[in-house]
């Protein structure tokens, strides 16, 4: 305070000096200069002393002026001023951004203050000095005081938060009252107006934008509309976040925000919809700010507020049932739709109509779903039934297509057939016969020579070569020559024999030797190189197999075999006898007239037959008959016989007397 | 040499007449036909291609090549006996120079001026090598006469690792009684085979060598000779049919 008073006192003094002694300054005034410098120094020192820690000012604690040039002193001051300038700038920015928050409740206000401190890049808890400066900046604005006054008054205020808060609260209440009244100031109903859109508001907004664009500041406060809004507890909030105060009220994260958080309810009267008291405050403040903009040079913050407010009301989602393109909607509404003129449209108009129709069609076609023909790979399920039949499909085939059969082709074929029949040129299949080569012949072709070859390898190849090149040359002897030679030879031989004493006959002419053309192996080797049973005859081929089967010896026979043999013998014999009898009968029949003397053999035969059948027995004198040995025996026997006979006749008187044959064997005599 | 001689004679002539006369170089004399005479030499016309006069054949000939074939002791005497038959075709037909180096016991073959065909050297070397391996001179001569003949060598142990008696039996199987089997193979396949203890050398054309080699390998592996005969007969007839 001393400083300021001191300063205040000095200033008029100095100005007085300047007023009266204006020409004093034409020459260098050392005294005045010294006074000035000392004054500046004391001012600086005092200010520096009162500066809070971490203020961010110049590092110089005192202004050094002894033996310093003016230029140097200026530089020192500049150092301090630059530092302080940035500080003040930030303070102003913070104040601007927090302009809305001043009307909120106390807690939020405090929070805002804290945020602002954080925003202003100061680590420690800010002093009330700053708050004071900010608040004071806001307050005068709110209370419609000039900003210049506010800045000046900042130094005058004490460092009491409570007073300020109280003031702010009071102001808030003021604001509230004003806000309600001033909400409907600008709404001018027009035909275009919708639930969401108001023409007059749009116009005002456009005007403001234009104004703002005229004096564009450096855009420090551009909103990042796409950035995610942090939650309440987040301390590191920048200016931009602070601006978007919507999060504060609702306490939601950005992801949970709904339409009603951003925009008014659908009705035209926003203050009827009080979903959030805070919202309302917010709206009011914003509206108020918006109203003030017309009167003042607004800062960016206010402009942004307005922008956001305007954008809020500017939503024009066309939810109506109109299927027409949205862009045309407003235009159609704007130009008063007159009844369609059916009479006399100009050619241009007609063309335009057609064009527009065509355009519409094309657009619809473009927007609509493509037909299945144009969709890439189409399966049977994706296209209608039998639709492929109506299509002319073009595709490539790897193989040759089968020939199309037409009448012409058949006629051609028939012509060929007829011609062939006439020519008897049938393509008959010729039976193939496998050339059978005997092993013999085959072996003949390659004879194996087991001896060292007489010709050397060179000669062998030579001969082969000659054979290949000269196949057809053959030396043929003239048969006449051969005969002449032979005759001559014989002649000379005879002459030699006649003329010479010591005749030595010529050596014999080599005879024609019969060479059997067998492979040398068979000639050379005594034992056949290989023998096989295949060449021999089979035993069956030598002797036929017995129909009876295997020949068995006497010991090997089983019972059945023996019986079989016996049967066989008997059968054979029976047959023989029968044949004999037949012959006999035939013979007898032939010689009936001749003596009937029975031959000895026949007698014997008869006897045998008789005795065999058991019909008669030959009485042999063997001594077996007891009855003949003694008379007593004989008579007793006779007696017995007669008795039995009488008995039998008595018993069977009626019965025919059977001719009882008395068989010796039965009597067992 | 001739050129230098001529050049040498030229100054002498001059010297006789006058002393210390300037002698024109031979080169300049040669190029009289050129318009500028002796002054224009290399640098004057760089665009023109360099002119090389045709050289005679003997200058074109490189240095003489030589081949050496070592002769083991057991082939020394047969070499001596057949020396005439050996060197005659080499020298007369192939126009090469051949000698037997007694100190190193090598047969050395060299090209000379008269050699027309440089490939003859290889042929001659192969011929001598074949003889040294054990083939007859007449058989080895085929190498000179025919281009397509080759020489293949392999060991019995390469086919199947045999030791002791098995090895001896295998060699016996290959040879056969009195060399029968070996001759049979030779005759059927039109090759020549030399059986030197465990080493086998085959001389013949490529296909025939293959046939003979298959037959011998089968014998080593243990097939009986009759089977081998059958096989080679079949193969030989097939090849004969083709040609």
TrEMBL record, chain A:
<dbReference type="GO" id="GO:0032040">
    <property type="term" value="C:small-subunit processome"/>
</dbReference>
<feature type="compositionally biased region" description="Basic residues">
    <location>
        <begin position="564"/>
        <end position="577"/>
    </location>
</feature>
<feature type="region of interest" description="Disordered">
    <location>
        <begin position="174"/>
        <end position="193"/>
    </location>
</feature>
<feature type="compositionally biased region" description="Acidic residues">
    <location>
        <begin position="264"/>
        <end position="305"/>
    </location>
</feature>
<keyword id="KW-0690">Ribosome biogenesis</keyword>
<keyword id="KW-0539">Nucleus</keyword>
<feature type="compositionally biased region" description="Acidic residues">
    <location>
        <begin position="109"/>
        <end position="137"/>
    </location>
</feature>
<feature type="region of interest" description="Disordered">
    <location>
        <begin position="558"/>
        <end position="600"/>
    </location>
</feature>
<dbReference type="GO" id="GO:0034457">
    <property type="term" value="C:Mpp10 complex"/>
</dbReference>
<dbReference type="InterPro" id="IPR012173">
    <property type="entry name" value="Mpp10"/>
</dbReference>
<feature type="region of interest" description="Disordered">
    <location>
        <begin position="109"/>
        <end position="165"/>
    </location>
</feature>
<feature type="compositionally biased region" description="Basic residues">
    <location>
        <begin position="176"/>
        <end position="187"/>
    </location>
</feature>
<keyword id="KW-0687">Ribonucleoprotein</keyword>
<dbReference type="GO" id="GO:0005732">
    <property type="term" value="C:sno(s)RNA-containing ribonucleoprotein complex"/>
</dbReference>
<feature type="compositionally biased region" description="Acidic residues">
    <location>
        <begin position="149"/>
        <end position="165"/>
    </location>
</feature>
<protein>
    <recommendedName>
        <fullName>U3 small nucleolar ribonucleoprotein protein MPP10</fullName>
    </recommendedName>
</protein>
<feature type="region of interest" description="Disordered">
    <location>
        <begin position="208"/>
        <end position="356"/>
    </location>
</feature>
<dbReference type="GO" id="GO:0006364">
    <property type="term" value="P:rRNA processing"/>
</dbReference>
<feature type="compositionally biased region" description="Basic and acidic residues">
    <location>
        <begin position="332"/>
        <end position="356"/>
    </location>
</feature>
<feature type="compositionally biased region" description="Acidic residues">
    <location>
        <begin position="320"/>
        <end position="331"/>
    </location>
</feature>
<dbReference type="Pfam" id="PF04006">
    <property type="entry name" value="Mpp10"/>
</dbReference>
<keyword id="KW-0698">rRNA processing</keyword>
UniProtKB/TrEMBL annotation, chain B:
<keyword id="KW-0539">Nucleus</keyword>
<dbReference type="GO" id="GO:0042254">
    <property type="term" value="P:ribosome biogenesis"/>
</dbReference>
<dbReference type="InterPro" id="IPR004087">
    <property type="entry name" value="KH_dom"/>
</dbReference>
<dbReference type="GO" id="GO:0005730">
    <property type="term" value="C:nucleolus"/>
</dbReference>
<dbReference type="Pfam" id="PF22891">
    <property type="entry name" value="KH_PNO1_2nd"/>
</dbReference>
<protein>
    <recommendedName>
        <fullName>RNA-binding protein PNO1</fullName>
    </recommendedName>
</protein>
<feature type="domain" description="K Homology">
    <location>
        <begin position="148"/>
        <end position="221"/>
    </location>
</feature>
<feature type="compositionally biased region" description="Basic and acidic residues">
    <location>
        <begin position="11"/>
        <end position="21"/>
    </location>
</feature>
<dbReference type="Pfam" id="PF17903">
    <property type="entry name" value="KH_KRR1_1st"/>
</dbReference>
<dbReference type="InterPro" id="IPR036612">
    <property type="entry name" value="KH_dom_type_1_sf"/>
</dbReference>
<dbReference type="InterPro" id="IPR041174">
    <property type="entry name" value="KRR1-like_KH1"/>
</dbReference>
<dbReference type="InterPro" id="IPR055212">
    <property type="entry name" value="KH-I_PNO1_first"/>
</dbReference>
<comment type="similarity">
    <text>Belongs to the PNO1 family.</text>
</comment>
<dbReference type="InterPro" id="IPR055211">
    <property type="entry name" value="KH_PNO1_2nd"/>
</dbReference>
<feature type="region of interest" description="Disordered">
    <location>
        <begin position="1"/>
        <end position="59"/>
    </location>
</feature>
<dbReference type="GO" id="GO:0003723">
    <property type="term" value="F:RNA binding"/>
</dbReference>
<keyword id="KW-0694">RNA-binding</keyword>
């Amino acid at each position: 305070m001393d400083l300021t008073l001191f300063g205040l006192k000095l200033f008029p003094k100095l100005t007085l000096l300047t007023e009266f002694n204006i020409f004093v300054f034409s020459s260098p005034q050392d005294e005045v200069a010294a006074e000035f410098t000392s004054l500046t120094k004391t001012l600086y020192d005092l200010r520096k002393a009162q500066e809070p820690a971490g203020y961010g000012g110049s590092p110089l604690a005192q202004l050094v002026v002894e033996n310093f040039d003016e230029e140097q002193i200026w530089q020192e001051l500049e150092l301090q001023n630059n530092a302080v300038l940035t500080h003040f700038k930030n303070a102003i920015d913070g104040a601007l951004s927090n302009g809305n928050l001043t009307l909120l409740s106390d807690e939020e206000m405090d929070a805002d203050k804290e945020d602002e401190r954080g925003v202003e890049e100061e680590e420690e808890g800010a002093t009330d000095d700053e708050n004071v400066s900010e608040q004071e900046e806001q307050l005068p604005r709110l209370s419609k005081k000039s900003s210049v006054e506010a800045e000046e008054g900042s130094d005058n205020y004490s460092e009491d938060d409570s007073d300020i808060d109280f003031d702010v609260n009071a102001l808030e209440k003021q604001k509230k009252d004003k806000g309600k009244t001033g909400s409907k100031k600008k709404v001018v109903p027009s035909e275009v107006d919708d639930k969401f859109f108001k023409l007059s508001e749009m116009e005002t907004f456009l005007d403001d934008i234009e104004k703002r664009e005229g004096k564009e500041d450096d855009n420090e406060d551009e909103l990042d509309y796409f950035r995610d809004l942090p939650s309440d507890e987040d301390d590191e909030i920048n200016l931009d976040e602070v601006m978007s105060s919507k999060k504060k009220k609702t306490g939601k994260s950005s992801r949970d925000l709904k339409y009603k958080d951003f925009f008014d309810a659908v009705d035209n009267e926003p203050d009827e919809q009080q979903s959030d008291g805070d919202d309302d405050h917010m709206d009011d403040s914003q509206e108020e700010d918006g109203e003030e903009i017309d009167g003042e040079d607004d800062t960016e913050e206010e402009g942004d507020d307005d922008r956001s407010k305007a954008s809020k009301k500017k939503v024009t989602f066309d939810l109506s049932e109109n299927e027409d393109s949205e862009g045309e909607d407003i235009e159609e509404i704007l130009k008063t739709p007159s009844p369609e003129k059916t009479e006399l449209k100009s050619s241009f108009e007609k063309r335009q109509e057609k064009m527009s129709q065509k355009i519409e069609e094309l657009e619809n076609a473009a927007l609509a779903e493509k037909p299945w023909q144009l969709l890439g790979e189409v399966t049977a399920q994706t296209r209608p039934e039998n639709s492929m039949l109506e299509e002319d499909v073009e595709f490539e085939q790897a193989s040759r297509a089968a020939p199309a059969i037409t009448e012409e082709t058949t006629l051609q074929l028939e012509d060929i057939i007829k011609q062939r029949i006439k020519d008897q040129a049938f393509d008959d299949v010729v039976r193939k016969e496998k050339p059978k080569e005997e092993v013999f012949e085959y072996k003949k072709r390659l004879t194996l020579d087991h001896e060292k070859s007489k010709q050397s390898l060179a000669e062998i190849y030579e001969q082969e070569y000659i054979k290949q090149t000269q196949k057809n040359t053959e030396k043929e002897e003239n048969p006449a020559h051969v005969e002449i030679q032979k005759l001559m030879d014989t002649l000379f031989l005879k002459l030699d024999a006649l003329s010479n004493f010591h005749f030595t006959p010529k050596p014999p002419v080599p005879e024609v030797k019969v060479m059997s053309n067998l492979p040398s192996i068979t000639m050379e080797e005594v034992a056949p190189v290989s023998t096989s049973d295949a060449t021999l005859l089979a035993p069956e081929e030598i002797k036929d197999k017995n129909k009876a089967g295997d020949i068995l010896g006497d010991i090997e026979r089983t019972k059945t075999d023996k019986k079989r043999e016996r049967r066989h013998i008997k059968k054979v014999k029976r047959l023989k006898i029968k044949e004999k009898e037949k012959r006999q009968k035939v013979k007898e029949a032939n010689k009936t007239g001749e003596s009937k003397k029975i031959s000895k053999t026949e007698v014997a035969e008869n006897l045998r037959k008789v005795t065999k059948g058991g019909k008669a027995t030959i009485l042999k004198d063997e001594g077996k008959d007891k009855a003949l040995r003694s008379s007593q025996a004989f008579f007793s026997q006779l007696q017995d016989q007669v008795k039995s006979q009488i008995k039998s006749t008595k018993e069977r008187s009626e019965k025919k007397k059977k001719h009882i044959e008395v068989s010796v064997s039965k009597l067992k005599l | 040499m001739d050129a230098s001689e001529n050049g040498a004679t030229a100054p002498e002539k001059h010297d006789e007449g006058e002393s210390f006369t300037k002698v024109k170089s031979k080169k300049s004399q040669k190029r009289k036909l050129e318009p500028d005479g002796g002054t224009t030499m290399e640098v004057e016309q760089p665009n023109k291609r360099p002119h090389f006069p045709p050289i005679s054949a003997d200058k074109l000939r490189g240095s003489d090549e030589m081949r050496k074939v070592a002769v083991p002791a057991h082939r020394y005497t047969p070499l001596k006996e057949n020396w005439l038959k050996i060197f005659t075709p080499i020298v007369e037909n192939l126009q090469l120079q051949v000698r037997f180096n007694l100190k190193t016991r090598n047969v050395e073959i060299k090209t000379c001026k008269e050699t027309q065909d440089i490939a003859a050297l290889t042929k001659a070397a192969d011929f001598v090598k074949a003889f040294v391996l054990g083939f007859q001179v007449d058989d080895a001569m085929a190498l000179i006469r025919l281009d397509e003949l080759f020489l293949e060598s392999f060991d019995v142990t390469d086919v199947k690792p045999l030791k002791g008696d098995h090895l001896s039996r295998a060699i016996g199987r290959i040879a056969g009684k009195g060399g029968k089997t070996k001759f049979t193979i030779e005759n059927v396949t039109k090759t020549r085979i030399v059986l030197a203890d465990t080493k086998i050398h085959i001389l013949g054309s490529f296909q025939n060598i293959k046939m003979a080699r298959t037959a011998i390998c089968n014998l080593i592996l243990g097939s009986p000779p009759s089977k081998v005969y059958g096989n080679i007969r079949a193969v030989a007839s097939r090849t004969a049919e083709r040609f």
